[in-house]
Structure formats: C-alpha cells, structure tokens
Amino acid sequence: MLRPATEADSAAIRNLIHRVGINPTGLDWRRFVVAVDGSGRMRGCGQLKPHGKDIGELASIAVELEDRGKGIARLIIEHLIARARRPLYLTCRSSLGPFYEKWNFHTIGLNEMPPYFNRLVRLASLFMPKGESLLVMRLL
Ligand SMILES: CC(C)(COP(=O)(O)OP(=O)(O)OC[C@H]1O[C@@H](n2cnc3c(N)ncnc32)[C@H](O)[C@@H]1OP(=O)(O)O)[C@@H](O)C(=O)NCCC(=O)NCCS
Q1: Which tens digits make up the pLDDT trace of 101-122?
Q2: In whole angstroms, how far apart are CA 19 and each of 1, 28, 65, 79, 123?
Q3: Among the atoms of ligand 1, which is closest to the Cα of residue 68?
Q4: Could you identify the atom of ligand 1 that is nearest to the CA of residue 91?
Q5: Are residues 29 and 44 in the same domain?
Q6: 118 burial class (0-12, 13-18, 19+ CB within 10 angstroms)?
Q7: Which atom, in ligand 1's list, is nearest to the CA of 92?
Q8: Is residue 98 within 6 Å of ligand 1 at its C-beta?
Q9: For residue 99, how far is its CA from the centre of ligand 1 (angstroms)?
Q10: Cβ(16) – ligand 1 distance below 6 Å
Q11: Residue 39 burial by Cβ neighbours in a 10 Å radius (0-12, 13-18, 19+)
C-alpha cells in the first residue's frame, strides 16, 4: 500500500536512503510517499522535490533489498509522476538509465539542463565510481 509519509516515517526514510547510498540531502518527509506492508512497515519511498517554482525532480526512489523486483518502485514512480508538474527531471547513475526509460524519461545534455542539474553533473563527475556517470533525465 502507498500512503503519504508522516513525521513518524522520517527516521525510516533517512535510514533507507542512507543504506542504499543515494543523495542524502533534501529529505523532508512532507514531500514523500511510502510503500508499507501489511504490518505497516515501510518497504520503499520516493518524493517530488521542488527546485524553485518551476522545476520538479523525482527523487529518493528506494526499496528495501529483500522487497525488490515486486513492482514497489513502479507503484511509487507512477504515483508521483501522476502528480508532478512537467517537465519533470531526475538524476541517476548511468546504469539506471534503462530503468527510468520505462516511464519515458530521456537523458538530456548539459545544454538542456536547468542550472541546478548542470552544476550537479559537473560536481558529480569528480566523485562517481569508475565506469558510471550521473545522468539527468527529463519527462515532458
Ligand atoms: C532501483 C530500485 C528502486 C528498483 O526497485 P524495485 O521495487 O525492485 O523495482 P520494480 O520491481 O518496481 O521494477 C519495475 C521495473 O523495472 C525493472 N527494474 C528493476 N530494477 C532495475 C534495474 N536496476 N535496472 C533496470 N531495470 C530494473 C523491473 O524488472 C521492472 O520491469 P517491468 O515492470 O517492466 O517488468 C531498487 O533496486 C533500489 O532501491 N535500488 C537502490 C536505490 C536506488 O538506486 N534508487 C534509484 C535512485 S536514482
């Protein structure tokens, strides 16, 4: 089941994001939805992060390791996409590009990126593991 996060989910969200090793900044629980199991335990999460008035980012998509491959991320992503303004952006490591292409996100070049993402990509290039790069993708 999916539901809006409450303040009580804040620690579980931070904990999951930390364990999966994705961007740990901007984790305000008010923007999150969480997927919970029959006992109410959080199994996954995601959010729509605003950057100023006009730019939205699909972010913090994460699912517990033992619950992957069951369609939980799909549920979260489709819920958020249905509520997001366009264009909607996301960043991911290059190996996850094909994953987000399932929802028609397309990789964009440096010259197409809003300044926030442009700066992030340049910065990330200094820190990404060998063989990976940071993609910025957009859904129109
Ligand atoms: C990436 C992640 C969110 C996927 O969660 P999930 O619940 O296992 O995904 P789903 O079961 O909803 O899969 C949806 C579809 O994507 C596919 N898929 C899942 N993981 C994939 C991957 N790593 N690469 C490509 N496709 C993938 C599934 O096969 C499924 O395809 P289908 O619906 O067409 O049959 C999960 O592996 C995760 O939490 N990873 C660590 C955190 C992370 O990297 N988050 C993304 C930050 S940008």
Answers
A1: 999 999 999 999 999 999 999 9
A2: 22, 17, 10, 23, 22
A3: 8
A4: 48
A5: yes
A6: middle
A7: 48
A8: yes
A9: 6
A10: no
A11: exposed
Residue with tokens 């060998």: 130
The string of pLDDT tens digits covering residues 35-87 is: 999 999 999 999 999 998 889 999 999 999 999 999 999 999 999 999 999 99
The rounded Å distance from CA 46 to ligand 1 centre is 13
Please indicate, yes or no, whether residues 50 and 103 belong to a single structural domain of this protein.
no
What is the domain range of residue 130? 87-140
Q: Are residues 65 and 93 located together in one domain of the fold?
A: no
Taking a C-beta distance cutoff of 8 angstroms, is the pair 63, 37 a contact? no
In terms of Cα–Cα distance, which of 5, 1, 12 is closest to 64? 12
Q: Is the CB of 71 under 6 A from ligand 1?
A: yes
Say yes or no: 42 and 57 in one domain: yes
Cα–Cα distance, 101 to 122 (Å, whole number)? 23
**Which amino acid, one-letter code, is at 122?**
R
* Residue 107 token pair: 């990789």
* 98 CA: nearest ligand 1 atom: 25
